[in-house]
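Dear support,

I submitted the protein below through the web form. The confirmation email said the job was done, but the results page showed an empty box. After a refresh the structure appeared. I'm attaching both so you can tell me whether what I see now is the final result or a partial one.
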Amino acid sequence: FFQFFFFLHHLLVPILAILPLLLLFEILYLVAFQMFSRKKVEYQEDLEGEQNTKKAKTAKELEDAVLGFGKEALKSALAVDDEDHGVIGVEVDKSVAWVDDDDDTVKVDLNEKSRLKKLRKHDQEKNIKGRQFASRLRGQFEKVYGKPKWAETNLDRKQAVDDDGTVDGEGADALLQSSKPLLARRKTHLVRSVLDITQVKDANSERRSEAVVQSVDFHPSSSAMLTAGLDKTLRIFQVDGKKNTLLQSTFIKNLPIYSAQFSPDGSEIIMSGRRSFFYSFDLQSASVAMISEIQGRKEKSLERMWMTPDNKMIVFSGNDGNILLVSRKTKQLIGRLKMNQSCRKVAFSKDGEKMYSTGDEGRVYIWDMKNRVCVNKFDDDGSVCSTAIHASPDGQYLAVGSNSGVVNVYDDSFLTSTNPKPIKSFMNLTTSIDNMLFNHDSNLLCFSSRMKKSSVRIAHVPSLTVYKNWPSQRTQLQFAHSLAISPNSGYLALGNDKGSAPLFRLNFYDNF
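What the results page shows now:
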């Protein structure tokens, strides 16, 4: 027994001696483990917060691009078009390239901001997941601006193309060896997919009209434009898109102005209305002269007025289908043309040798202005009443608008054919077409109706398609009563029922 006790004593003494050390190590281990666990939790929280911040920033950028305040991002995204800048697309998988699983954990409150409410599918909807939010933003973007060219998936990236359109090699290697397609951002011709247009300060922001703006027109050689309307006031503004300074304001006490136009040489403005007389405003002397009447005619209204491009005549629509030709120099009647219907609108060829007129029966007349005879006439396809007409400056197209909102575009066969068929019929508007204009290079056709709010459209003439991105839901045009395009297509101006003249910069064109 003594030996057993002695053995047990020698065995337990060392164990008891190191037991405090084991307890100390255990305590230190527990403390270190708790500290490590806390740091790990803090690190994960910081990482998750950083990811949420990045998500919020990305969502905000996408939100701004779709709902507003993202013009620069949108402009950058649409700056390069594959057809127009030599950038060739790549054949890609239609599936999403990258998916963030955390999108399902992010919640977005659609009622937090008023501009997010348009993303709701019903009024009671409030919170949606991040993935749904991104999908709805994408859908809203494409609804407003259309799908950008760079987002299309069925493009071919087999060739790299130079600025001049020549092939610079084949395959991805050729594309990577040249930076020209990626840097060729300057458009060489007008694209048909997206209209690059920016709204600037209203042309008459310094002095708005007190009634409907019935006429807007640009000076043919200087950066100025006029507005005139039912408030009996002619105003001339310097157009720069920033300040648009008022240069001249003239009150015509007995003439609510329906038509006002610069003369082709830019020295005079002719104004007319529902009166038997009209006015002339001399720009050099700033003097106004009234032409009491057109001798030999008993006209009650001269509200429809145009000036020939050769600067020789002023044309009025008279009674009973008569078209009155008045000398611009003497302001005396020098000729008369007769239609078998009331004349509503008149247009001219660029050289002024031909005049096109149309009216209540939907028939188009073509006149030789040298001999003052009708050389051809035809019925506008499907129209019972034509309300607008304009010819392209290059002489290739004639556009005719009707009271049903249809715009028919004819090629040059209309000059000789008695039954031409339109090469395109635009049916984007549903109310009577009031104004219609081709721009100076015949690439754009703008048409409008005053009967419905924001009824203005711009068509790309070479492709005969209407731009879908303008006007957008945010573009406030009101009821457009008049429109004008500057001489080199740098600006588009409208006149509306609120007395304003919204002004837009057509960014493709450099000059006024």
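Response: this is the final, complete result; the empty box was a page-load delay. Helices lie at 2-67, 71-77, 82-85, 130-145, 171-177, 180-183.
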